[in-house]
Amino acid sequence: MASKQQMTDQEISGQAVEEVGDQAMGPAFLAAGASVALSWYYFFLRGDRQRGLFVGLWPPTILAFASYFNQRKMRQQLNSITQPGATLKNAFDSMMGNR
């Protein structure tokens, strides 16, 4: 059975991961959606199919970059939490950006 301290550590790290994901992916989803709309505009309304297809390739790239930066941020937080000698208070402060 997990101790109360271990359960608290798991709850805190889970909340931090969700917060990082919400912060990093918001603008990326907006940009990806806007590029889809722009590609439809070029493809269907303007009749410029080549440009529409080109712009239609942007959303996966935008989301891939956002995912990469999101994973980097989570990796940094995980490293700060799991450092030897790190106390719960120090780990929590570093996750919340107080340091």
Question: If you had to describe this structure to a student in words, what would you say it looks like?
Answer:
The chain is an all-alpha fold and 99 residues long. 84% of the residues lie in helices and 0% in strands. The protein is built from four helices and no strands. The chain has helices at residues 4-45, 49-56, 58-81, 88-96. The longest helix has 42 residues, at 4-45.
What does the secondary structure layout of this molecule look like, with pairings?
Blueprint lengths: L3 H42 L3 H8 L1 H24 L6 H9 L3
Observed structural traits:
mainly alpha; 84% helix; 99 residues
How would you summarize this macromolecular structure in one to three sentences?
With about 100 residues, the protein is mainly alpha-helical. Helix content is about 85%, strand content about 0%. It contains 4 helices and no strands.
Main β sheet profile: none
Question: Helix and strand succession?
Answer: HHHH
The helical percent reads: over 70%
Number of helical segments? 4
The shape is: rod-shaped
